[in-house]
């Protein structure tokens, strides 16, 4: 299937590793022009160089998207380089663990600072451009935004992202802008959180994985990235305000 993404400008927030890196590669394969963001510039610049060697037009932006000015700076760079934004993929996020009793108020604030505000601020910063292009926003949440268990300060921020997806989908539909959530299950990739946990406790984590994930393996970053590319494309034109679970059957909810 031709996703008809060729020439579209895609901004990938959190692009130097894992699902974001795989998303950048998938969108590059579809012919997108890319604006890639992460804090650390080493791996980001290396990815940008690799992609531009294969003919992709790419702008790498070293920016902290949890900072006040970060999201606006990023979208400003996209507009300066390419003159518009067709696709915005929000992937910044992560968890530092903990139960309700263990998590302090500061942990909850941190959960929202990492997992919710960057996505909201980048969406606001790109809104005019997205309306002009009748574009698409993809928020990458987690199955844990809909389930009990796991680190609660992370879960509640990811739940808020699901709610934001619904609101943006409904409110922006009259402008032709779509918003879709992608909720991954446990994804293994080099340098990611499951990679670290697996190295720290190979037997325990493998046992947990076999018990919790029906397919008996972790998901890959590419398996999430391909879904993101499809949802960002016109081929998903009737999908908005909803979430797509990408978890190999791991979660309990549909
Ligand atoms: N991996 C999983 O099992 C899993 C499961 C469910 C949901 N998710 C969600 O999927 C998303 C991506 O997960 P992942 O495992 O691929 O993440 P990851 O390995 O932690 O990579 C995150 C990417 O975002 C960048 N980043 C982090 N903080 C940033 C900030 N403040 N400003 C700008 N860039 C920032 C990182 O680069 P720098 O560190 O250099 O900034 C990196 O490129 C996250 O929202 C995560 O919660 C992941």
Tell me briefly what this model is.
The chain has helices spanning 18-29, 41-53, 70-82, 105-115, 117-133, 152-172, 193-200, 202-212, 221-232; strands at 9-13, 33-38, 58-62, 87-90, 136-140, 178-184, 242-246. It is α/β, with parallel strands linked by helices and 254 residues long. The protein has a single domain (9-184, 219-244), classed as NAD(P)-binding Rossmann-like Domain (Rossmann fold, 3-Layer(aba) Sandwich), CATH 3.40.50.720.
Notes on the structure:
This protein has 254 residues and is α/β, with parallel strands linked by helices. It has helices at 18-29, 41-53, 70-82, 105-115, 117-133, 152-172, 193-200, 202-212, 221-232; strands spanning 9-13, 33-38, 58-62, 87-90, 136-140, 178-184, 242-246. Helix 3 packs parallel to helix 5 and helix 7 (193-200) packs across helix 8 (202-212). The protein is globular and about 50 Å long. NADP nicotinamide-adenine-dinucleotide phosphate binds next to helix 1, strand 2 and helix 7.
Topology of helices and strands:
Blueprint: E1 9-13, H1 18-29, E2 33-38, H2 41-53, E3 58-62, H3 70-82, E4 87-90, H4 105-115, H5 117-133, E5 136-140, H6 152-172, E6 178-184, H7 193-200, H8 202-212, H9 221-232, E7 242-246
Parallel strand pairs: 1-2, 1-4, 2-3, 4-5, 5-6, 6-7
The protein binds NADP nicotinamide-adenine-dinucleotide phosphate.
NADP nicotinamide-adenine-dinucleotide phosphate binds at residues 14-20, 37-40, 64-66, 91-94, 140, 142, 184, 186-187, 191-194.
């Amino acid at each position: 299937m031709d996703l008809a993404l060729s020439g579209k400008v895609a901004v990938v927030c959190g692009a130097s590793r894992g699902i974001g890196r795989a998303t950048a590669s998938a969108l590059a394969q579809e012919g997108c022009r890319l604006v890639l963001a992460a804090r650390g510039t080493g791996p980001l610049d290396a990815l940008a160089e690799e992609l531009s060697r294969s003919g992709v037009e790419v702008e790498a932006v070293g920016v902290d998207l949890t900072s006040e000015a970060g999201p606006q700076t990023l979208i400003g760079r996209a507009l300066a380089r390419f003159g518009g934004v067709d696709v915005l993929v929000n992937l910044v996020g992560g968890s530092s663990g903990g139960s309700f009793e263990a998590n302090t108020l500061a942990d909850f604030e941190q959960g929202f600072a990492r997992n919710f505000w960057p996505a909201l601020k980048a969406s606001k910063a790109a809104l005019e451009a997205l309306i002009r292009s009748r574009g698409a926003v993809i928020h990458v949440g987690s199955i844990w935004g809909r389930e009990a268990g796991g680190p609660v300060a992370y879960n509640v921020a990811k739940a808020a992202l699901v709610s934001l997806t619904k609101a943006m989908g409904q409110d922006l539909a009259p402008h032709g802008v779509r918003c879709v959530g992608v909720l991954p299950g446990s994804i293994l990739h080099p340098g990611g959180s499951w990679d670290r946990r697996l190295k720290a406790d190979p037997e325990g984590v493998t046992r947990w994985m076999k018990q919790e994930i029906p397919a008996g393996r972790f998901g890959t970053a590419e398996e999430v990235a391909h879904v993101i590319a499809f949802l960002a494309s016109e081929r998903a034109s009737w999908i908005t305000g909803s979430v797509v679970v990408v978890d190999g059957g791991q979660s309990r909810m549909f």
